[in-house]
Write a structure and sequence with these properties.
This protein is α+β, with helices and mostly antiparallel strands. Helix content is about 60%, strand content about 10%.
C-alpha cells in the first residue's frame, strides 16, 4: 500500500492505539485492513450523499425557476421566506437563499453536528448557484399546475437533500432546536412558522396567491415524506447484532443519544435454533439517521436493523448529550 494513503487511513479510519515501548504506535495487518474497509465505506457513503444532494439541488431549482418564480407563488419555511422577500423587493432570490439560511447552518452545527452543517452549507450554496446560473424552459402558466408541480419538485429536492444528510430549508433545524428547548412538538412549531409566512403572503401579495401557495406547501410536504420513505420527525431504531456493546457505545459517544438494551432470543435456521442476544434500541431524528446507519455499517454490516416512525417523543435523552468531539 502506498505510504501516503496508509497514513491517511490511519489518521481517519483507525482507532488510535497506545504507543509501543519506542513511542511509535503499532498497527497490525488486521487493524490496517479494517481501517481500509472503513475508509472505503466512508468514501462510498460520501459520494452517495453528494449525488443525492446534487439531485436535490437541481430538483428544487427546477421547481423554483420553472413554476414558483414565474407566478409569484411561495412555499413554507426558509424557502418560502426567500421567495416572499424576492417577490416584494428587488433582491435576487439566490442571495436571499444564502443569507436567510446562514443562521440555520450555524444552528445545525450546534444541534446536529459538523458534518451535517458542512453538507447543508454545500447544498444551500449549490442551490443558490443553480438558481442564479442555470436556465430552465417555461412549462406552464396554469396556477393549479404551478402550485402542485412547483411543490412537487421543491419537496423532492428537499427530500433528496435530507437523504444525503443535509437540508436546503433550515426551518426544520430551527424546529428541532425549539422543540428541545421548550418541550413542544416539531410539527406544532413548523405550523406556527408557516402561519406567519402565509399570513404575510396574503397581506403583501394577495389572498389568492397565499391560497395557491398553501397548495404548493402541501404538495411539497407530501413529496418530501414520500422521498424520505415516510420518516417522521423521529425514528425508532432497533438493532440486533453480535457487536451490540460496540454499537451501544457508538450511539452514546458518537451520536450523543441514549439507548435501551434489553435481552432477547434470536431464532434462525430450519430448526428454529435460538440463542440469547442483546437488543439495542434508540430514537434519533431523521437528520441523524444517515449518520447512524453509516456508523452501524462500519461496526457490523450484517446487523439486523429495524426502523419505525415515531410521531414525537417526550422525556428520556432526546436532547443530545454534550460531546467532547464530533466525527
Amino acid at each position: 500500500m502506498n505510504a501516503f494513503w496508509k497514513q491517511i487511513i490511519i489518521q481517519t479510519s483507525v482507532t488510535k492505539k497506545k504507543g509501543k515501548p519506542n513511542g511509535k504506535p503499532g498497527y497490525s495487518n488486521f487493524v490496517i485492513a479494517k481501517g481500509v474497509r472503513n475508509f472505503r465505506l466512508s468514501a462510498v457513503l460520501l459520494i452517495k450523499d453528494i449525488v443525492l444532494i446534487t439531485i436535490g439541488i437541481f430538483s428544487a431549482s427546477f421547481g423554483f425557476k420553472v413554476f414558483l418564480l414565474t407566478n409569484h407563488f411561495i412555499d413554507g419555511g426558509a424557502t418560502g421566506i426567500s421567495l416572499l422577500i424576492s417577490n416584494v423587493t428587488s433582491i435576487p432570490l439566490y442571495i436571499l437563499i444564502i443569507g436567510i439560511n446562514i443562521p440555520f447552518v450555524l444552528l445545525g452545527y450546534k444541534v446536529v453536528g459538523k458534518a451535517f452543517a458542512i453538507k447543508t452549507a454545500f447544498a444551500i450554496s449549490g442551490l443558490a448557484l443553480c438558481v442564479a446560473t442555470v436556465h430552465f424552459p417555461d412549462v406552464t402558466k396554469d396556477n393549479v399546475l404551478v402550485a402542485v408541480f412547483g411543490g412537487f419538485f421543491l419537496g423532492a429536492g428537499i427530500g433528496f437533500a435530507v437523504r444525503g444528510g443535509a437540508v436546503i430549508d433550515g426551518t426544520e433545524v430551527l424546529a428541532i432546536y425549539l422543540s428541545r428547548k421548550f418541550g413542544t412538538t416539531i410539527g406544532d412549531i413548523v405550523i406556527v412558522i408557516n402561519i406567519f409566512i402565509f399570513g404575510a403572503a396574503a397581506y403583501l401579495l394577495s389572498v389568492e396567491i397565499a391560497l395557491y401557495s398553501m397548495i404548493t406547501y402541501l404538495s411539497a410536504s407530501k413529496t418530501l415524506d414520500f422521498i424520505i420513505e415516510g420518516i417522521e420527525e423521529y425514528t425508532g431504531v432497533t438493532i440486533i447484532s453480535a457487536y451490540s456493546e460496540k454499537i451501544r457505545r457508538m450511539i452514546v459517544t458518537v451520536m450523543g443519544r441514549g439507548v435501551t438494551v434489553y435481552k432477547g432470543k434470536r431464532g434462525y435456521g430450519k430448526t428454529g435454533e435460538t440463542r440469547e442476544a442483546d437488543i439495542v434500541y434508540t430514537v434519533v431524528t431523521r437528520l441523524e439517521l444517515n449518520k447512524l446507519n453509516a456508523e452501524i455499517e462500519k461496526i457490523d454490516p450484517f446487523s439486523f436493523v429495524v426502523m419505525s416512525s415515531v410521531k414525537d417523543t417526550k422525556g428520556g435523552m432526546i436532547k443530545k448529550r454534550p460531546l467532547s468531539h464530533e466525527n
